[in-house]
Amino acid sequence: MASALGKHAVFANRKILLLEAGKPRSYTFPEGKYSNRVSALSPGSVALLKDVGAWQQISQVRVQPVKNMQVWDACCDSRIGFDNNTADIAYIVENDLIVDSLFNQIKKLRSVRLVYESGMKNIQFPKENHSDHRFVEVEIQDGRRIWTRLIVGADGHHSTARRLAGFRVYERDYRQMGVVATLKFAEAGPNHTAWQRFLPTGPIAMLPLSSTLSSLVWSTNHQQARALLQMSEEQFTDAVNRALWDETHKLDSVDSVLRQIDSVVSPLLNRLIESSPTAFQLPPTVMGIESGSRAAFPLGLSHSSDYIKPKVVLIGDAAHRVHPMAGQGVNLGFGDVAALQNVLVQCLNNGGDIGSLHYLHKYQTARQRQVLPVMAGIDGLHWLYSTANPAAVLLRSLGLNLTDRLTPVKNFFMQEAMR
């Protein structure tokens, strides 16, 4: 957010203070050695990073485009594939590289002051009859006090800004962990496919990093996550391959019904509408993992009832947190940045007060219209795919297979994800 505002001409003569809780870090990106936390950036997020000057460094260091996706169910033969012949679907980039490129841009901006190992301790809002109600007083952790027209809470799902400003938040623990690691393949290849298989315990996904490496994100219950972290590297590799290939969860009764329905529906669809299911590709076999790349983090959902208050606005995980299965968390956050930048620039060009709800409401309305349907969809998929109940498996399989056959519908979902 600081780089997006600091880069814009309307903020050239204004002061932006960025409080960073962590210590200064020196990032290195040795060839063939990848961080275990990555993001699938949409073309819309890439456009924002280009605008702030960060994408040049990212593209020069390393980035892996995703050209197609394969998603399938472990409980039956239902699947869906996404291909885009005109543009890349997403771009896989390490989180450390995104952060490093943004900090390097921020350090070039005269309008932005970066303070490490700091954060907010208290917020004092002005009283309505105060002589200057345009400013809010912020006490930072070293005891200093500053006055600002607007606080932007971009401090994650445990947001201090959200707590101090008194926002109400809905939270739910998925009782799952996301196990991550860097996977090695036996043979080098193009590796531009993102793979995701839905298991009864949660989805397992592989995101391409290079010709021989992919990043694993395996969502599962706490017990299995602990077991996966304690296994030897050989045992862990075997567990990943089993999760991708094992057929023990298959429900033959569901597959039988699906085949019968498909024999009737497919000819009708072919006559009525453009219908072309994507050919299914088999995932590559994993031969090993990068030593020391395994880790796990808790999964949950949270949503602030409001994104704005007078003098305060929330963005990213401070406002909304989603399950990683669709890879949309970071893209929703970058969408917040772009929307808030537009609103604040419009406000200043009109001579307005950037802390006023008059303009901040435009940001909240625009973002909630985008965020809430995505959150509901991802949460619904999480619960729908967290069971091996035959009725639920049949219902979700019919939906998945039908979407795969309806090319216009599938293209709509793909375009929405690429925003």
Blueprint (SSEs and pairs):
Elements: H1 2-7, E1 16-20, E2 38-41, H2 43-51, H3 55-61, E3 64-66, E4 68-73, E5 79-83, E6 90-94, H4 95-106, E7 112-116, E8 120-124, E9 136-140, E10 145-148, E11 151-153, H5 160-165, E12 169-185, E13 193-199, E14 202-208, E15 213-221, H6 222-230, H7 233-245, H8 252-272, E16 286-289, E17 295-304, E18 308-309, E19 312-314, E20 320-321, H9 329-349, H10 357-384, H11 390-405, H12 407-417
Parallel strand pairs: 1-7, 4-13, 11-19
Antiparallel strand pairs: 2-6, 3-6, 4-5, 8-9, 9-10, 12-15, 12-16, 12-17, 13-14, 14-15, 17-20, 18-19
Helix pairs in contact: 8-11, 9-10
Describe this structure in words.
- The protein is of the alpha+beta class and 419 residues long.
- 38% of the residues lie in helices and 26% in strands.
- The chain contains twelve helices and 20 strands.
- The protein has helices at residues 2-7, 43-51, 55-61, 95-106, 160-165, 222-230, 233-245, 252-272, 329-349, 357-384, 390-405, 407-417, and strands spanning 16-20, 38-41, 64-66, 68-73, 79-83, 90-94, 112-116, 120-124, 136-140, 145-148, 151-153, 169-185, 193-199, 202-208, 213-221, 286-289, 295-304, 308-309, 312-314, 320-321.
- The strands form five sheets. Strands 4, 5, 12, 13, 14, 15, 16, 17 and 20 form a nine-stranded mixed sheet that branches. The chain has a three-stranded antiparallel sheet with strand order 2-6-3.
- Helix 8 runs parallel beside helix 11 (390-405) and helix 9 packs antiparallel against helix 10.
- It is globular, with a radius of gyration of 23 Å.
- The two termini are 18 Å apart.
